[in-house]
Design brief:
The protein is an all-alpha fold and 134 residues long. The protein has helices at residues 3-36, 51-85, 90-101, 106-113, 117-130. It contains 5 helices and no strands. The protein starts with a helix and ends with a helix.
């Protein structure tokens, strides 16, 4: 695993979590639609009475997956923070933290650190060389 791949793990996990959160929102919408169509009127004997239960089970499964990924994200971010903290150059450490922990875009980092984006890319290359992966 390269240094960039190591530091980018948190970003990829957050993207997976966000994707699953969108899926959960979609399942919630589906569950609301299913429950809003319930009434006291007689229904066809062939209707699927378990459909809402299936949606709820899928929702619970997705939420459990999200919780597991959040725990993994917390652990990886702690590992990455510890790795960045070991960098002796404070400027490089700040850049690494803003980029790989806070996941800020280069333009925002440039504004925060008062540097050009081009200089930040040079500083990033320098900072990546200072990282020692456990």
């Amino acid at each position: 695993m390269t240094t960039k791949e190591y530091l980018g793990q948190a970003y990829r996990i957050e993207q997976r979590i966000n994707c699953k959160l969108e899926q959960v929102a979609s399942l919630h919408d589906l569950a609301e639609k299913a429950t809003s169509t319930l009434s006291d009127m007689p229904h066809s004997p062939n209707r699927n009475i378990h459909s809402i239960e299936n949606v709820i089970v899928k929702l619970m499964d997705m939420e459990n997956e999200i919780n597991a990924e959040i725990q993994e994200l917390i652990k990886i971010k702690e590992d990455i923070k510890a790795t960045i903290k070991a960098v002796d150059d404070k400027e490089c450490a700040m850049l690494l933290e803003l980029r790989y922990i806070c996941q800020k875009p280069w333009e925002d980092i440039a504004e925060i650190m008062c540097y050009s984006v081009g200089y930040l890319h040079e500083l990033n290359r320098k900072a990546l060389k200072k990282i020692k992966i456990k």
